[in-house]
Amino acid sequence: MSDLLSRRLALLGAAANLPLLTECLHGIERECLRVDSDGKLALTPHPRALGSTLTHPQITTDYSEALLEFITPTETDVADTLADLERIHRFASSKLDGEYLWSPSMPCELPDEESIPIARYGSSMIGRLKYVYRKGLALRYGKTMQCIAGIHYNFSLPERLWPLLRQAEGSELSERDYQSAAYIALIRNFRRYSWLLMYLFGASPALDAGFLRGRPSQLERLDEHTLYLPYATSLRMSDLGYQNNAQAGLTPCYNDLQSYIDSLRQAVSTPYPPYEKVGTKQDGEWVQLNTNILQIENEYYSSIRPKRVTYTGERPVQALAARGVQYVEVRCLDINPFLPLGIDLDEARFLDAFLLFCAFSDSPLLNGECSDATDNFLAVVKEGRRPGLQLQRRGQPVELKVWANELLERIADTAALLDRARGGEAHAAALAAQRAKVADAELTPSAQVLKVMRERGESFEAFSLRQSREHAEYFRQHPLAAEEQARFEKMASDSLAEQTELERDQDGDFDTFVAAYQASILGLISN
Q: In angstroms, how far is CA 496 from the centroid of its own chain?
């Protein structure tokens, strides 16, 4: 164990400090497509019974009208977070009227691009802005890519922990800057080691053949309707996903918060010639918010983001610049199609131990390691289960299994500390489940998906639809208690009323609103 990691774990293991580890906060955002009874993309509007996608705090949409997004409150116990997520699923399932929640990350058979409905958020200024932003995404990346779903895992360490570490380490940084630097250090380590999460939890080794729209690829044919790679863990996170030249130069290596903010500021204010050729309007209709590399910061696709809760009207990069990093958002997790929620407690508890390991370990600047981190990640998502697969560690080849076991040995110390803080052995058990997957690749979700499809002679679509139906039956058999159902009904009706009020009380025109929105980031740059 590194000196820094051992010192920090010893400090937090002291009786007076151990309870701090029970104050970490967790939140989950789960995306999933609505599909019809035949497993085809639902072309129906977002169910009104679920409330307003603009103002509902827990049920919204991501890119498409059919791409639901469920958002939990934050909880100190991740078991409570998953219970929150399950309640949202139960309520939503009760309102789907013959439709299903699609079980995996990769989409169902999709109609032609024109027919994929972009999410709508009403006639308010902010609602229209969200719609135009998505029209811009369609223009830049195509609609097919926008139908991929995932799980975002939000995690923060307790605010009271940072001053303790800062004092013990004699840091001369301000409390805010120390906390931000520590989160950025966590992110650097995440970049180094996140290939391990792809091996352990990647669950998208195959996809519907129509997804590629006839584009050539290195994928192999499993059957007439299914493409796959034999050793892939997560085609969702491979270069089959967002291929875009505009973002190619955007590779912040997270050496400090300021450089990350500066790279995003630059991207949202730097014109990109192919987008300039299109313009922001066609025939008087808005088609994208601007012609810059990014329309807004959230367009930057990354496996993890530093985050800060924003105030009303505040942009994410403004919040980071003003108040520093508050939590991280892990964005590379596939939906496990065998699980009704797409994620379970074992995965969540391992993620906690993994993220604490990343936070507390030495984290030198990446510099030359940046390309190795990217290459390792891409190697594992495409070939992670290949026997003897070699990765690069500090410029030297190392076998995936060897490095994975070494990392798990080190993560065991943070898992043990979490178990001491909470009582029981849940984190150690979660770690043991991951050790078993390293010992036997057939236990990984990606291998299990292919195994079941082969054994049952199922295409990707048939497998996914069967799982979707099984999950729907699970939720049908476990309805919400009456008072919980009533609470969600009220949340839905309140959100609809709030959207109506927003649409009634607005002044000015949309062009002026967009100009002011753009100026907010330009003003930040000039400052």
A: 27
The 3 state secondary structure assigned to 230-272 is: CCCCEHHHCCCCCCCHHHCCCCCCCCCHHHHHHHHHHHCCCEC
Strands 327-333 and 304-307: antiparallel
d(CA 291, CA 278): 8
Residue with tokens 């891409």: 378
Please give the model's pTM, rounded to 2 decimal places. Answer: 0.96
Q: Given phi > 0 = left and psi -120 to 50 = alpha, else beta, which region is 457?
A: left
Contact yes or no for 431/412 (Cβ under 8 A): yes
Residues 6+ apart with CB under 8 A from 399: 388, 389, 390, 391
Contact 499, 491 (CB under 8 A): no
Long-range contacts of residues 417-426, Cβ cutoff 8 Å, at least 24 apart: 417/9, 417/12, 417/13, 417/18, 417/21, 417/356, 418/21, 418/349, 418/352, 418/353, 418/356, 420/13, 420/18, 421/18, 421/19, 421/20, 421/21, 421/22, 422/21, 422/22, 422/77, 426/345, 426/349
Q: How far apart are CA 32 and CA 517, in angstroms?
A: 29
Whole-angstrom Cα distance, residue 301 to residue 331?
A: 9
Instruction: Report the half-sphere exposure of 385 (CA within 13 A, side-chain side).
Output: 24
| β-strand partners of 33 | 67
**Separation of alpha carbons 12 and 164, rounded Å:** 9
Can you read off the two tokens belonging to residue 464? 């996914």
Q: How far apart are CA 14 and CA 12, in angstroms?
A: 5
Residue 91 to residue 103: CA distance in whole angstroms: 17
Q: 34 in helix, strand or coil?
A: strand
Between CA 315 and CA 165 the distance in angstroms is 30
Q: Rounded to an integer, what distance in angstroms lies between the CA atom of residue 207 and that of residue 459?
A: 9
Look at residues 99, 100, 90 and name the one whose alpha carbon lies nearest to residue 70.
90
Buried-state track 459-471, b at ≥16 Cβ within 10 A, e below 16: bbbbbbbbbbeeb
Buried b (16+ CB within 10 A) or exposed e, 221-231: ebbeebbbbeb
3-state secondary structure 102-159: CCCCCCCECCCHHHCCECCCCCCHHHHHHHHHHHHHHHHHCCCHHHCCCEEEEEECCC
Per run of 10 residues, the mean pLDDT along the chain (length 527 residues) is 88 97 98 97 98 98 97 98 98 96 98 97 96 96 95 97 96 97 97 98 97 92 97 94 65 84 90 95 96 93 94 89 97 98 98 98 89 94 98 95 98 98 98 98 98 98 98 96 98 98 90 89 53
Tokens of 348: 């969540």
CA distances to 78, 211, 336, 374, 491 from 150, in Å: 18, 16, 9, 19, 25
